[in-house]
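Hi team, as promised in this morning's meeting, here are the two structures we talked about. I've kept the exact order from the run log so nobody has to guess. The first one is mostly here for context; it's the second one we should focus on when we meet again. Sequence first, then the predicted structure tokens.
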Amino acid sequence: MKLLITNWIKRHFSDPQVVFLGGFLVVLLAVLLLAGRMMAPVVAAVIIAYLLEGLIAPLQRLAVPRLFAVLVIYLGFLLVVILILFGLLPLISKQSTQLIQQIPGMLAEGQAVLQRLPELYPEVISAAQVSELMAAIRTELMAWGQRVLSVTVASVLGLIAVVIYLVLLPVLVFFMLKDKSLIVGWFQHFVPRNRQLAGKVWSEVDRQIGNYIRGKFLEVIIVWVVSYMVFLGFDLQYAMLLSMIVGLSVWVPFIGAAVVTVPVVVVALFQFGWSSDLAWLVAAYLVIQILDGNVLAPVLLSEVTDLHPVAIITAVLFFGGLWGLVGIFFAIPLATVVQAVVHAWPRPRDLEPSSGDLI
């Protein structure tokens, strides 16, 4: 057994480049696990700068000076942030508050419907089962209310963190874009000169993760806008709030679409009842989901290697359990990075010298 382990280590880690790459990945993972919360503003700034870099590079290819390109894209980024903070967030907050206030009324209507079920379908459901179901719903609502209260208290404590984000993030993003070459050059001082393997891995990661994040970001915007127009056309309540969560749900394949369907259908049901308007709205919503999964996503993510559904679900469960909601949103990009590293990692036969090298 010891001999097998020794031979495996020699086959896979005999190349110094492999040792360096493996050590770098271990250190990076340790930093994220141990200091992830402290480094969250830096990680967020890196992600935003990476997204904006995809807009700066085309301008540079058109012979636009980098500093000018950075200023144009950065000012556009600040404008979007201001519009979100002072235009979108107040509307989302207002609709969220209105929805929470209507939940008791929805529950009362739902309870009335449930209490009539034993009379209509006595062979299927009994009054005792309805009582147990209502008791379970009340218990869950009480627990949910306690969680909301704890989040409200925690939000007061987290106000300082929000202010820090609002101040630090724009500053970090600007200097990461402006001084990109200096920052990259500083990191290269700690990298061995013989770094072809690391360069190959980074090229694969850059291609995969860059295409994925930018493609998904565009997919979120398109699904959000189309859903909002459809909901607005049906005069659905809380159209902006519901369309936002529908757009954000595309970050979590399979699971996101299934989860976000519940609030959309519930709100439509209590607004329209069992009517043709409900049927048409649900049909339009399903068309959006079908077109997104079968047309929009394949077109926007055509250059990204597909992940197996098992890998997607595993990544969502693992990173979601590790970092909560943030981990769920970034599970697929992180899984894409892992896949890119695995594809670029040299196989044992690649590390063996060729016949030409022996001469």
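And here is the second protein, the one for discussion:
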Amino acid sequence: MANLSFTNIGITGMAAAVPKNTIDNYAYTEFFPKADVKDIVDKVGIKERRFAPDGMCASDLCFAAAEQLILDLQINKEEIDLVVFVSQTPDYRMPATAIILQHRLGLGKHTAAFDLSLGCSAFVYGLSIVYGLMQSGSFRKALLLDGETRSKVYSPKDRKTAFLFGDGGVAALIEQNKKFGDSFFSLNSDGSLADLIKMDAGGYRNPSSEETVQEKVVDEYGNIRTDEHGYMNGADVFNFVLREIPKNFKSVLEQSSNTNDSIDFNIFHQANDYMNSYLAKKLKLDSKKVPSCIAKFGNTSSVSIPLTIVSELQNQLQGSKKLMLCGFGVGMSWATAQLSLVDCKISDLIEI
């Protein structure tokens, strides 16, 4: 595993934006019987999600979050030297969306900007990259923007994924300051499991064609999708999470010489309610220290960790708080971090 540590780098503020369009999962019955829908929703614990309308991209959600954060923290835009945009639903194949956002936000030409495509672990990966650049260079302020419109990726006719995914965007301001102390990261990957969560077509290995966009029945249960819809092997993903995440979580605690008792909040990727409850129990975590927003927003991929912080911890981060962040999913890729938030400003959640 790749173990990293940084000193005196931290998050000074966060904001999040979600679409106004709210999906009631219990009423999401266009393609499935109501009784089946209720069973699925009760099992996954996702009651509502937010769907971006046509024409709204992940970058629009991140832009709204960043503008609010800049306003609330009264940031001088000339001091922002770095923008990293995390997403697997970018505006275009090229150019990089981060560069579009640099211009749209009115940031200077001195700003370094690039995209990161990874998936559910990407917020933690993104933090490690920004922390590393801040540690090694003369950057003053950095924006980590993380957005996904996963509602556009999965088939509404595939019950394995139709009730899981939602959309959102977040912005985090990262700075150097001695008050933050040490932070610790563990980054991991296993490409032998790439087929567990995948979109088979639409890239350059298997380009878009008339055939790849045709709906087809894909299994004995009658689920329907195209080759350009994402799919997931839920049972194998669950087994992967239970095999890899607890030991990775414990390794970061050991790396930092801390214990569960010294951690204020443990924020897991919001994959599904049952999985995260199982993880918390296996790791012997106090349930009060494991916030969740999955019931309100569903699985928002890499956005889920920071969205949980903004939506659930806004008034609980005064003073210095130690957090464990743990993201896992598509790749397969997983990452855990321990960091301190010190008087972190959390903006009100935005709906657009």
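Starting points for discussion:
The radius of gyration is 19 Å.
DSSP finds eight helices and 18 strands in the chain.
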